[in-house]
Design brief:
Layout: E1 10-23, E2 26-39, E3 43-47, H1 54-62, E4 69-72, E5 75-78, E6 81-82, H2 88-97, E7 99-102, H3 106-109, H4 116-128, H5 132-145, H6 151-155, H7 164-177, E8 182-186, H8 194-211, E9 214-219, E10 231-236, E11 239-245, H9 246-251, H10 256-263, H11 304-308, E12 314-315, E13 321-322, H12 328-342
Parallel strand pairs: 3-9, 3-10, 7-8, 8-9
Antiparallel strand pairs: 1-2, 1-4, 1-5, 5-6, 10-11, 11-13, 12-13
Helix pairs in contact: 4-5, 4-7, 5-7, 7-8
This protein binds adenosine-5'-triphosphate and magnesium ion (MG).
């Protein structure tokens, strides 16, 4: 069992989550043993390419997996409660109230035949036991809180009358109605254009500061999290390849995959001249995952040993660890040698 690193005031602690799908007689190992924690009042970004298992990991934590999925874990604790010991009904209650999730496409979470006000008022009645009048008042206040202008008028409108950005704000409002301790936002801005995307991320950050809740922000774009998250977890092939504070990940990344991801991110301060390096190759199939490090196929440092078994973590600080047989220093050295010989 992999131990999570620091364990201080964690709102969420998960050890060795394994999620497998059974479809058409085959198994997909979507999450292959991930341990992570979220501290009270922090924003954790979970990044990784498409198919790395980010959404499945979070849905496994929330107990939102379909019947063909099998979720196993050594530990899953939320706000001091053991989620593994809860029945589906208890989990459902917790999900509505203490932990909320918002998804990539707001339309799927909104009923097109009901007004925005109906959605909010229902949540407030159900989860906070408010009467209609109090719920309406609170709904207006929450819409205001998420920056929706003329909230009273907006309450009576339908989802299609909202722009994409406003719909995402409405969904965040719905999640906030429950005053969750943890908000999981799964790619909340990928469907939006860049300016609106930045506004929504700013909103999440200020809401976090205002309310003190914790946020897990899932994204495949490392660039968007730099100014937002406190810590970053990097996923690949169903595994947590590296985790660290945002500073550690950006200024002292250890894992070759994290380094490759960073090279593929445009740096605003360096202007447009810098050459971006997309990571060559494709993510491994999780249908029949390789026995060794899943990144070995695409890693310029990979050796035979990497392909034998999944490496264990190297611990770099109380907050940083990386799943690579080489230390950051050894990788730097190898890189320097290649550069020296290649020129
Ligand atoms: N219902 C399912 N049945 C079978 N396999 C699934 C199911 N849902 C997800 N998977 C598989 O699990 C793996 C991880 O998927 P997941 O959706 O977690 O990736 P992701 O990191 O969230 O990617 P993206 O950035 O595209 O959202 C993928 O290989 C996917 O095909
Ligand atoms: Mg996803």
């Amino acid at each position: 069992m992999e131990e999570t690193l620091k364990k201080k005031e964690n709102i969420l602690s998960a050890a060795d989550i394994r999620t497998t799908f059974h479809t058409h007689g085959r198994t997909v190992q979507a999450v292959r043993g991930v341990s992570l924690y979220v501290e009270a009042g922090e924003i954790l970004a979970v990044v990784g390419e498409s198919g790395s298992g980010k959404s499945v990991l979070m849905k496994s934590v929330m107990g939102l997996m379909p019947d063909n999925a099998e979720v196993q874990a050594d530990q899953l604790t939320f706000a001091g409660e053991d989620l593994l010991a809860m029945n589906p009904e208890q989990l459902r209650k917790l999900r509505g109230k203490e932990m909320a999730m918002i998804f990539q496409d707001p339309m799927t979470a909104l009923n097109p035949l009901k007004t925005i006000g109906y959605h909010l008022i229902e949540v407030l009645k159900r989860h906070r036991g408010m009467n209609k009048e109090a719920a309406k008042k609170e709904a207006i206040a929450v819409l205001e809180q998420v920056g929706i202008p003329s909230p009273e008028k907006r309450l009576g409108q339908y989802p299609h009358e909202f722009s994409g950005g406003m719909r995402q704000r409405a969904l965040i409002a719905m999640a906030l109605c429950c005053r969750p301790k943890l908000l999981i936002a799964d790619e909340p801005t990928t469907a939006l254009d860049v300016t609106i995307q930045a506004q929504i991320l700013d909103l999440l950050k200020s809401l976090q500061e205002e309310t003190g809740m914790s946020i897990i922000l899932i994204t495949h774009d490392l660039g968007v999290v730099a100014s937002l998250s406190h810590r970053i977890a990097v996923m690949y092939g169903g595994l947590l390849m590296e985790e660290g504070t945002t500073e550690e990940i950006f200024y002292s990344p250890k894992h070759p995959y994290t380094r490759a991801l960073l090279h593929a991110v445009p740096k605003p301060q360096s202007g447009s001249k810098e050459r971006l390096e997309p990571i060559p190759g494709m993510a491994p199939s999780l249908l029949d995952p390789p026995s060794g490090c899943p990144f070995a196929e695409r890693c310029k440092f990979a050796c035979d040993e990497c392909r034998k078994e999944i490496p264990s973590y190297r611990i770099y600080s109380t907050t940083q660890r990386a799943m690579c047989i080489y230390s950051g220093e050894e990788l730097d050295q190898q890189e320097a040698e290649v550069t020296a010989h290649g020129k």
